[in-house]
Amino acid sequence: MPELQRLTPDHAPALLEFERENRAYFARSVPDRGDDYFAQFDARHAALLAEQETGHCHFHLLVDDGEVLGRFNLVDVADGVADLGYRVAERAAGRGLATAGVRQVCDLARDAYGLVRLTASATLANAGSLAVLRRAGFTPVGEVLLDGHPGLRHVRELAG
Ligand SMILES: CC(C)(COP(=O)(O)OP(=O)(O)OC[C@H]1O[C@@H](n2cnc3c(N)ncnc32)[C@H](O)[C@@H]1OP(=O)(O)O)[C@@H](O)C(=O)NCCC(=O)NCCS
After folding, report:
1. Which residue's alpha carbon is nearest to atom 16 within ligand 1?
2. Is the CB of 133 under 6 A from ligand 1?
3. Mean pLDDT over all residues of the chain?
4. Which helix (H) or strand (E) holds 141?
5. Burial 129-139 (b: 16+ CB within 10 A, else e)
6. Which residue minimizes the CA distance to atom 5 of ligand 1?
7. How far is residue 26's CA from residue 19's CA, in Å, rounded to a whole number?
8. Across the beta sheet with 58-64, what order do the strands follow?
């Protein structure tokens, strides 16, 4: 049973494997991370953990038997609001893992991190991601350009 875990130093090798294995798949929907990301992965991982320590972001991995199946990140935390981003492994796609993960992160955002609202954006071309946001209770609130591609910005209130 996959489990959502807060990012730790120990996750580095499995997370790198996840990003490597799915690089081409992710690049079909979101900007490629670039070769430097992979070359400097350990330093970047340490930087993410340091940033997480400050409370400005909360990173989570969906882990199944030591393997990373997805990542769900809350970034730009300020004034009770954060922006949500996520990605799920190609071989685990279409099983509802993104929807379940987003719902779980919404609960964590409210109950563990004390947030009141999340924002999230997806391009119009990313029908899967738009479906995930809709099913997890996000409402489209406006148009946005994401690396030059038209998209929709969404909001979900967490109160209650
Ligand atoms: C988008 C992404 C997170 C979806 O993950 P997932 O675990 O497959 O998502 P779920 O199974 O929870 O739900 C996907 C839903 O979208 C639907 N869907 C997927 N691709 C679709 C498409 N091209 N057109 C219409 N619907 C689509 C699926 O059918 C599914 O709905 P269903 O359960 O009613 O059939 C995953 O494909 C991914 O990581 N993509 C690359 C990175 C990315 O795009 N991240 C989001 C950036 S905003």
Report:
1. 128
2. no
3. 97
4. strand 139-146
5. bbebbeebebe
6. 98
7. 9
8. 3-6, 58-64, 67-78, 81-88, 117-123, 149-157, 139-146
The residue range of the domain holding 9 is 3-157
* CATH number of the domain encompassing residue 65: 3.40.630.30
Which amino acid, 12?
A
- Residue 82 and residue 76 in contact, taking contact as beta carbons nearer than 8 Å: yes
Measured by CA distance, the residue closest to atom 9 of ligand 1 is 98
**Residue pLDDT, tens place only, 44-103:** 999 999 999 999 999 999 999 999 999 999 999 999 999 999 999 999 999 999 999 999
Distance 44 CA to ligand 1 centre (A): 27
Q: How many domains does the chain have?
A: 1
Ligand 1 centre and the CA of 111: distance in Å? 26
**For the whole prediction, is pTM greater than 0.85?**
yes
